[in-house]
Amino acid sequence: MKRWLKEHFPFLSRIKRWMLLQWAVVSRTYTRLLSGYYTRRERAARKWVHDNGNDTLRYQYDIKPNDCIFDIGGYMGDWTAGMTERYDCSSYIFEPVSSFSNHIKTRFLANPKVQVFQFGLEKENRNLFINIADDASSCFSHNTPDKQEMIQYIAVDDFFSSHQIEQPIKVIKINIEGGEYDLLEALLDRGIISEIANLQIQFHHIPHIHSLKRMRKIQRKLKKTHVLQWSYRPYVWESWTLMDH
Q: Is residue 119 located within the same domain as residue 235?
């Protein structure tokens, strides 16, 4: 059969060689792009560590005792602890995972200026399963989890309308393992973004939710209301400040 095909359709072998060549080019290009992405992220992460960003930049804001901050993705409450110790400000912590939320409630039991909410903020009211993996717990990860839990999300505009919050919110910190895309899109589309003086964001690389395309679109929209103060890109930390604030 192969001999017959070669005799009657000699061009097929040329097509096969061409297709193999194209596949090799595509594979090589993809490998280089992927390698470049990880190299850039690793460089940004090393620079972040070198600059001691976790202990400096993440806490350097003009905060007064009567100001309010949002800690979205509270985990153990470390960022709120650092901010309240420095500035004696009020903090709303959003942590939907029950064990993390209970830890935070116990940690700040003696501080009436810290409120803990056992739900996340998102574009709509819904419940989702989350894969529990310490500070990498996510509803969007494909990693095999040790444990899962059903968690609650509240639409961010519903939360704002039902709570009397001093505005503008001085800082919103967002580190929610892929949930930042839905949340930031809702803040932008519903006009809430102009009520936030500073945003501290960690984006996450999650291809199946088109994270790169959505991140770039969010960053373009943020430029209309905020100024980028510092960034360690891609996917480490970046901070934006409201124009004329």
A: yes
**Model confidence over 76-90: pLDDT tens digits?**
999 999 999 999 999
Cβ-contact 232, 47 below 8 angstroms: yes
pTM for the structure as a whole: 0.82
Q: Which residues pair with 132 in a beta bridge?
A: 147
CA–centroid distance for 63 within its chain = 23
For the segment 130-159, what is each residue's pLDDT rounded down to a tens digit?
888 887 788 887 666 678 899 999 999 999
Least Cα distance to 166 among 64, 96, 242 occurs for: 64
Place of tokens 């739900």: 119
Contacts for 127-133: CB closer than 8 Å, 24+ residues apart: 127/151, 127/152, 127/153, 128/153, 130/96, 130/97, 132/97
- Domain, as residue range, for 24: 16-50
Looking up residue 218, the CATH number of its domain turns out to be 3.40.50.150
Please identify which residue in the block is written with the tokens 């803040």: 187
The answer to whether residue 3 sits within a structural domain is: no
The reported pLDDT for the residue numbered 94 is 98
